[in-house]
Write a structure and sequence with these properties.
The structure is a single chain. By secondary structure, the chain is α/β, with parallel strands linked by helices. It has 2 domains: about 15 and about 105-330, 3-Layer(aba) Sandwich (Rossmann fold), CATH 3.40.50; about 335-435, GMP Synthetase, Chain A, domain 3 (2-Layer Sandwich). Helix content is about 30%, strand content about 25%. The protein has helices spanning about 20-40, 40-45, 70-75, 110-125, 145-155, 170-180, 185-200, 220-230, 345-350, 390-405; strands at about 90-95, 105, 135, 160, 180-185, 210-215, 235-240, 245-250, 260, 265-270, 285-290, 300-310, 310, 325, 330, 335, 340, 355-365, 375-380, 410-415, 430-435. Helix 9 (about 345-350) crosses helix 10 (about 390-405). The structure holds 5'-O-[hydroxy(phenylacetyl)phosphoryl]adenosine. 5'-O-[hydroxy(phenylacetyl)phosphoryl]adenosine binds near residues 143, 215 and 242.
Length: about 450
């Protein structure tokens, strides 16, 4: 059973600015950041030649600015985007991403202060209050999750157990013995912990967990339902990426109808990834983010590759920050199977509509006879795993039908025994693409 919806509280007045006030603030900050970045970073000096902050008359003029991509950051490896003197760096994080190439992200003292506050905003929005205790089961290190959430929890006035990721036995001991109110990790690790809790014979009511703050990877509403049922908490989603700050770019409030962006710090656009034209509210596109206050590493029109939609509809919580939908996937993770575009989250959504399916799966794509073939390996909930061929075939057919109705293509399904697939302590890997890579 999920825990009750927490009451609504708002940390900063900027979260509630009326649109005209926010637009004015954003325009002012955009103008400054353009001049600042141009005067300090060779990449922007070149890209922004011929334009200065004053040329931007409205926020729409952001479209006149060139994009920044991951490849641009790589070309300036390791710290070519640094905009402050080196001795003003207060910390450096990094990400290796899916390509395995590192990106380093420096922060100034002010950047750290802002980041901490932004994380506190979404934690408070999701129910965290002074006096609560939070178990942080994200990796502490170059990854922004551990340290980002750590300082955010403290900023919100709550206490931290820095459990870090891994060692599920110890995680369970902390959950059981210290009785934290909140849990922070990836949704896939929350599932793994839920499983470990049950395996130990611990019931959700033996724990004190009320809130889960999950992020760092795509997940679905169906997955939220499973996690909440498993560990009995109220789960919210939060989003961010190292290149723009880490966690804290956006997060859900208790309404859970999208993640509010902190628009005083980020200007977000949603663009058709092919035409690079803006898409209307409610339509999916690639998020493109400009940092408005970052000192050590500002980015202008950073192409996140994350696919989501935006909504400016008023929110009952009182926050006015534009809301992004769940991320359906990264454009780099999109699979093209026999010409049809499929995101792993679509498959997750189809799978978890079926009660007998456990939330552990792997999508294997191959090309045996010059035709793409996709097989979804999926675990069955232990009590439904049966020796009866007929039962198993019925479940398999239902899963195949669900996948085909969500994705529009037929994929093979292989049912596998409970506890067979890998469990993840950080970001889950859901796809094994064995097709030859184009040169
Ligand atoms: O994952 C920052 C973060 C840490 C966010 C902890 C939330 C909580 P990176 O390692 O640079 O930074 O990975 C960023 O992860 O571009 C998305 O593709 C994905 N991602 C992050 N949050 C979400 C989310 C952190 N809530 C990349 N839903 C991003 C879906 C997410 N995908």
């Amino acid at each position: 059973m999920a825990a009750a919806k927490p009451d609504n509280r708002i940390l900063d007045v900027e979260e509630t600015y009326p649109r005209d006030r926010m637009t004015a603030l954003q325009l002012d900050r955009l103008r400054r950041i353009v001049d600042y970045a141009k005067s300090r970073v060779p990449f922007f000096k070149k890209g922004l030649a011929g334009i200065s902050g004053n040329d931007l008359k409205t926020l729409d003029d952001v479209r006149r600015l060139p994009f920044t991509t991951k490849a641009d950051l790589h070309k300036s490896y390791p710290l070519g985007f640094l905009a402050t003197p080196r001795n003003e760096i207060a910390r450096i994080h990094g990400s290796s991403g899916t390509t395995g190439k590192m990106t380093f992200v420096p922060y100034s003292k002010n950047d750290l202060r802002n980041w901490t506050r932004l994380v506190a905003r979404f934690l408070v929005a999701g129910g965290l209050r002074p006096g609560h205790l939070v178990q942080i089961s994200f990796g502490y290190g170059l990854f922004t999750g551990g340290f980002g959430l750590h300082y955010g929890v403290e900023e919100a006035g709550a206490a931290v157990v820095p459990a870090a990721s891994g060692n599920s036995e110890r995680q369970l001991a902390i959950l059981r013995d210290l009785q934290p109110d909140g849990l922070v990790c990836t949704p896939s690790y929350a599932l793994a912990l839920g499983e470990a809790i049950r395996a130990k014979g611990i019931r959700p009511e033996d724990l004190n967990l009320k809130f889960g703050f999950f992020g760092a990877e795509p997940w679905t509403e169906e997955m939220r339902g499973r996690i909440e049922d498993d560990i009995g908490l109220f789960a919210t989603d939060n989003y961010g990426l190292s290149e723009v700050i880490g966690p804290g770019a956006s997060g859900e409030c208790v309404e859970r109808t999208g993640m509010h962006f902190s628009e005083d710090h980020f200007l977000v656009e949603c663009l058709d990834p092919d035409t690079l034209e803006a898409v209307p509210d409610g339509e999916k596109g690639e998020l493109v983010i400009t940092t408005l206050t970052k000192e050590a590493m500002p980015v202008i029109r950073y192409r996140t590759r994350d696919i989501a939609s935006l909504s400016h509809a008023p929110c009952p919580c009182g926050r006015t920050g534009v809301k992004m939908s769940r991320v359906s996937g990264r454009s780099d993770d999109m699979l093209i199977i026999r010409g049809v575009n499929v995101y792993p989250t679509q498959i997750e959504e189809a799978l978890l509509r079926i009660r007998e399916v456990a939330p552990h799966y792997l999508i294997e794509v191959s090309r045996p006879d010059s035709m793409d073939e996709a097989i979804v390996k999926v675990e069955i909930v232990p009590e439904f795993f049966s020796a009866s061929m007929r039962d198993m075939v019925t479940i398999q057919e239902r899963i195949e039908g669900a996948i085909s109705s969500v994705t529009g293509i037929r994929m093979g399904v292989e049912l596998i025994a409970p506890q067979t697939l890998e469990r993840f302590q950080g970001k889950a890997k859901r796809v094994l693409d064995k097709r030859p890579k184009p040169e």
